[in-house]
């Protein structure tokens, strides 16, 4: 059984979906703790199930590096096999990435390497593309530059705004995350940046 720690900043909708997957008979992973950089509402998903929840407040530390060190220490208590960034809205400092890698993954609401960063859905709309997507990646020290483990296209409809487009991306993002966690647990997905990097290419068929 793969031991997973999930890190969040907000409502934890992807976390809730992953917890639901973990409830399914035969799912080969369990969420053993949920952490956040603030007193996030999403921590209630863990508390309601009796899963340990912890907060490492960013504001309580003098800089990002010391916050990252404290986060690593808090996560390590739970001895995870995998750490999932699920809406954690802070970049991990390099020391923290190095401490977790390659057992560190993230979801992103775009077809990376297109539209990295915090506003992937908004940026896709601003670019006028007809397709965007969702991705699950290994985390490295860049901004959404890690090797791609899974991704899928999502069409952009003519009347889409940021909310409607994001609402259609989220179910794909959640399904991909569950598939990747399952694949890591059963050995069909290797946490190997070199093997995964062959997927990290722009889609030549993207149209505007």
TrEMBL record:
InterPro entries tied to this protein: Formyl_transf_N, Formyl_transf_N_sf, GART
Residues annotated to bind N(1)-(5-phospho-beta-D-ribosyl)glycinamide: 12-14
Catalytic activity: N(1)-(5-phospho-beta-D-ribosyl)glycinamide + (6R)-10-formyltetrahydrofolate = N(2)-formyl-N(1)-(5-phospho-beta-D-ribosyl)glycinamide + (6S)-5,6,7,8-tetrahydrofolate + H(+)
BP-aspect Gene Ontology terms: 'de novo' IMP biosynthetic process
Source species, domain of life: Bacteria
Gene3D superfamilies the UniProt entry points to: Formyl transferase, N-terminal domain
EC number(s) from the headed UniProt entry: 2.1.2.2
CDD domains tied to this protein: FMT_core_GART
Annotated Formyl transferase N-terminal domain residues: 3-181
Gene Ontology CC terms: cytosol
Name of the protein in its database record: Phosphoribosylglycinamide formyltransferase
Species for this entry: Microcella putealis
Gene designation per UniProt: purN
């Amino acid at each position: 059984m793969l031991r997973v720690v999930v890190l969040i900043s907000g409502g934890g909708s992807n976390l809730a979906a992953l917890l639901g997957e973990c409830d399914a008979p035969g799912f080969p992973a369990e969420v053993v703790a949920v952490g956040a950089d603030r007193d996030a509402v999403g921590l209630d998903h863990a508390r309601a199930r009796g899963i340990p929840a912890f907060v490492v407040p960013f504001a309580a530390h003098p800089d990002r590096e010391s916050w990252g060190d404290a986060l690593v220490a808090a996560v390590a208590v739970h001895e995870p096999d995998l750490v999932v960034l699920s809406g954690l809205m802070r970049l991990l400092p390099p020391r923290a990435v190095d401490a977790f890698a390659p057992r560190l993954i993230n979801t992103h609401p775009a077809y990376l390497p297109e539209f990295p960063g915090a506003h992937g859905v908004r940026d896709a709309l601003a670019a006028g593309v007809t397709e965007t997507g969702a991705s699950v990646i290994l985390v490295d020290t860049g901004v959404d530059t890690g090797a791609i483990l899974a991704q899928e296209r999502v069409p952009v409809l003519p009347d889409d705004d940021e909310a409607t487009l994001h609402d259609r991306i989220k179910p794909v993002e959640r399904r991909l995350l569950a598939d990747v966690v399952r694949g890591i647990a059963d050995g069909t997905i290797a946490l190997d940046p070199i093997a995964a990097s062959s997927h990290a290419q722009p889609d030549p068929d993207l149209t505007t």
